Structure formats: C-alpha cells, structure tokens
Amino acid sequence: MNPAPLLEVTDLTKHYPVGSGFFSRPMGWVKAVNGVSFSIGRGESLGLVGESGCGKSTLARLVARLLRPTDGSIRFGGREIGALDRRAMRPLRKRMQIIFQDPYASLDPRMTVAASVTEPLLNGATLSKRERRSLAADMLATVGLRTSDLDRFPHEFSGGQRQRIGIARALCVRPELVIADEPVSALDVSIQAQILNLMKDLQQQFGLAYLFISHDISVVEHICNRIAVMYAGQLVETAGSEGFHWACRHPYTRALVAAVPQPDPQVILPPVPVEGEPPDPAALPPGCPYHPRCPHAFDPCPEQRPPLIEAGRHHQVACWLNGGKGVEQGLPLNWHGSG
Question: Where does the pLDDT of residue 20 fall: very low under 50, low under 70, confident under 90, or very high at 90 and above?
Fold first, then answer.
C-alpha cells in the first residue's frame, strides 16, 4: 500500500479580476493558474518548468498559502489547507517553507543574518534568544557559511552567499516541504552548481520534499525525481526525470527540450518549430491552450481541452495526439537523437 502523499493539489485555480472598480463587476478574468493537479510524496522532489508567465510562481505562492486560491483543493499532511485563514495557517508554517527567487530582495537589509535566519522561529517557538542564535550558527555551518557571519548584514554578501542564508532561514524550523521558486536563476552558473548540490545534500540530510520551480529543464533533471511542465496556467506533461529528454511526448515539452543546448556534440535533437506568442491569460483560446502554436494540431485541439492521461509508468500527457488518434499526423510517440 502506497503511503499518503505529503502534498496533494487537486484542480487548483487562481483567477484575477480585470477592469473592475470598487462597485463594478469585473470585465474579465486573468487565469493565472487554471485547474492544476499533482502530488508530492515525503522526501520526493517535483520540478515545475515552463516559460516566463506560465503561472509557476503563482502556483508556488498558492501552495505556500501566501495567496488564497480561487478554487480547488490543497491537502498538506492529510489536512485541507486551501481555505484556512492566516491564524489557522500559523501552526503549519514551520512545516512548509519557501526559498525566493531573488537573493537580493528576499533578505531585509536592516536585519542581521542572525535576525533573518531566526525570524521563522518566532512563530510559536519557545526558544530563548541564546538558543535561537546557537541554532542559527548551526544552520550557517550547514550551508557552508561561518559563525562570524551572524552579525553581518545582507549587503556584505555575494548573491550565492545570500541564497545560502535564505536556505538556512527556510531550514531553521526543520520543515517537511520546501518550495524553491527559481532559487538559482539569479546566480552565476558556477554558483548555481554549488547551490544545487547543497540542496541535494540537505534533502538527504533532513528528508526534505521539494517543489522546485525553474525555467531550466537541465536544472530540474539534476535535482528532481519527477518533472511537471506548465503552459498557460495548466500542466501539460508529468514524467520521471530520468531520461526525460527522450521520453517526453507533448509538443510544447519537446520544444523546450530541443531549445536546450546539448553538451555532447554527437547528440542532435530534431528541431521543433514553434510559431507565435504564448496566449494572453485573460483571453485563453478554447480547447488545448497550445493549439494555436502547435504544428500538429488537428480536429479536437481547438475545441476540447485534453485531460492528463496515462502515457506510461508515472507519465501523464495532456495532448490529443497521445490518446490514440492523430499520431499519424507527424508526431511519433518516441523520438531519438542521432549521432
């Protein structure tokens, strides 16, 4: 019998009103997140990828309950948290922490490192100031910083060091789930590798579950067990990270994979043409949101939104081509590089 997932999201949506005044009705809705479902087990890492504006960061803030969802369910540790108010969420905050994208904006410049790292401990903790400082020193050592850094301010650190401080702050309360919202996108490539390896080591050390958000498939392949691809507020494919380049089936996923430079010059992925621009979230097209840009679109695509269907073990795809029809249109179920 499989254990219950730590996090289970079902049909989650977040819609923002457009053009509404204080007393007037909204003229439309921006569908930032539009019916997303996934789960994360204890100690597992799920990577969420997609281009800018697809709703990844909004989804992260919904899961962390920094935003209230419009509809849908968020179950954490078996408890429904989607409708909880701020007071009811306070006891759960220490079990769920977030690492923000910008290491320069996520730390208060007026607070010392010790104050920043121990701030989450003030939420219902009974530790003394000395105990909090001792724990902060231990966490700094865990992320590769020195105890002498406790009394320094954020402007005295590099971007990579600031992100390590952000990770120390997130782990200070020993959470079960860490939501990492593009934690390495603002860092140099060499520093990215250090932070990613650090996060993998910390996951093994503390048994963490990650929701790791990025626009870089190669990054999530390195750190995650599974990958979910998001487009226009919806999930279009989920699969295991091992061999993801070759196993992916959705046309949008293949376009993302083909756009990543290959380190091996002998491996050549077939080009995937993509035309046009991503849809306006305030005016999403009917049917599959990717069909106006998809070179393989056929009859059902403009009319019916495809559900996530099984395409293999732990592999789901939201594409009518993978439902048994339309494969002959030019999108084989498997593709291979040549060398």
Answer: low
